[in-house]
Amino acid sequence: MMHPMVYQETMNKIRSGKYGSEMQDLVKSRRFIAADVEMYAYWCDGCGWIDNLMALDLYEPKDVEKVRKRVVNRWSAGDKNNKQSVEEVGDLSYFTVPDADYQLLKEYKHVCPKCGKVMRKIDSADLEKKSCPKCGEKYKVEDSFILWD
Predict the structure, then answer these.
(1) 30-55 pLDDT, tens digit each
(2) Is residue 110 part of a domain?
(3) Which of 8, 36, 49, 67 has its CA 20 to 30 A from that of 128?
(4) H-type helices in the chain, by residue range?
């Protein structure tokens, strides 16, 4: 339920330059740009650091006219404007990927806070093949769960 708010806060941070001038310039130069604010596990091949981070990859519409006319589905039953188009709202109120109407514009590069190398997104199957850099024990991924707010 918090996704639209997290999305708007993240887009505001991108617009303000918190994630670098290149991201800021891309968002300012395109009206219907979108960011992936989902959380993923990221791994550093340099030192073995692992972190749970927002992807922050930027996407743009394949067809601007199609996206412009799309009806925005608000998540609040109390929102009286839940049937407006993207054009009427002025931008995307939230975005989830993958969305077939969008294509990757810029992949955000997370930098390891320990060694400075670029981290990469890793799934649970790949994580279980890795070992802890401190003790050498293999990582174990427990059954997943859903956390509702």
Answers:
(1) 878 888 988 889 999 999 899 999 99
(2) yes
(3) 36
(4) 3-16, 21-29, 64-69, 86-89, 124-127
